[in-house]
Amino acid sequence: MSSHLTPWGAAAAVRNLSIRTRRPTVSPVVRARPTVERPIQQVVPFLITRRGMSDDTNMRYPPDSYYRSTPPPPPPPPSSSESSSYEAAKPEPYVPKPPEIFAPNFLNAAAIEALEREAAGQGMYDDDEGLLFEMPERPNKQQRLQNRYHPVVNQITKLLMRDGKLSKAQRHMGLILNYLRTTPAPKVNPLRPLLPGSPPPEHLPLNPLLYLTLAIDSVAPLIRIRSLKGAAGGGQALDLPEPMPARTRRRIAVMWILDTVKRKRSMGSGRAQFATRFAQEIVAVVEGRSGVWDKRNQVHKVGTAARANLAHPVVTGKKKVKGK
Predict the structure, then answer these.
(1) Direct distance between the N- and C-terminal alpha carbons of the chain, in angstroms, rounded to an integer
(2) What is the DSSP string of 13-43?
(3) Cα–Cα dist 150/71, whole Å
(4) What is the pLDDT of residues 19-63, one digit of tens each?
(5) Using CA atoms, how far apart are residues 314 and 233, in angstroms rounded to an integer?
């Protein structure tokens, strides 16, 4: 016989052991006992407590008038003083309200006119083109539909674009304007003032487009230096200052700002990294802390020194008269 005990064998051994050790049942001698009548007691289940009406806080007995077959007697009639106050407090008879008259607006007038046309046998919507307001004016041949943005925004967006990714540049432009809108008001440096007629600096965050335009136009150079090779004699170039249109001035200013932004340290990470640096440089330009002001001053300094070259014979086209 194997010494190992299987689960089935163990169960059988325990069952046999319980049968052998069980106390044998012995039938006792039935004795006659006197019958005693005992009161029937109600058996309360385990873990169930008794509860009566007296323990129920939500139970309320009905009043005595509930059990009466006759209705209660009416209250006594009020006295003279009480009757006068009762008559004064007596509600007024119901008077129906007059029908509400709508305010005369253009919608009601149009609806009434349509109903009148229908009553006259005409179509209700014959003359209606389905528009709530007037038809917008159509653009002329000179107007183009793609010019939806401000000229400054459109120009700066094209300058921010790299590798033809216009949507990315537009996202940067939106982040820049949002930064200018949410940033605190700048503190203008009196040594580097903005354009004359500009609004107070506290009003600039309310209009981010004006904020951006004012910063670029203020730092943009008024002139540029054009060099004429060999015009000064001896192979030397002749520097001539010349004015520029507004679009060219803004382009040069934005290129200067982009050069400064590329050299700045990255702030944060993510898509808003470049836009945040550009917007911070715009704020620095307004406050006079940007290095773009030095480039502008240098160009104006050279242009001021080269004003005498405008009277050069090469420029005026007049030849020098000998002996003078």
Answers:
(1) 146
(2) HHHHHHHHSSPPP--PPP-----------PP
(3) 87
(4) 455 555 555 555 556 666 666 655 544 444 455 545 555 555 566
(5) 10
- What is the rounded CA–CA span in Å between residue 186 and residue 139? 40
Structure tokens given for 112: 């009434």
- For the chain, what percentages of helix, strand and coil (3-state, to nearest 5) are there? 45, 5, 50
Within a 10 A sphere around the Cβ of 292, how many other Cβ atoms?
A: 24
Helix H or strand E encompassing 242: strand 236-243
Q: Which amino acid is at 63?
A: P
Handedness of CA 233, 235, 236, 241 (dihedral sign): positive
Query: Could you tell me which residues come within 8 angstroms of residue 65 by beta carbon, excluding any fewer than 6 positions away?
Result: 72
Distance CA 157, CA 284 (A): 20
Cβ neighbours for 93, distance < 8 A, ≥ 6 positions apart: none
Q: For the whole model, what pTM was predicted? A: 0.55
Our CA angle for 303, 305, 306, nearest 5°, is 65
Q: Detail the DSSP E strand segments found in 80-222.
A: none
Q: Is the CB of residue 266 less than 8 Å from the CB of residue 273? A: yes
Query: Distance between CA 311 and CA 163 in Å, rounded?
Result: 45
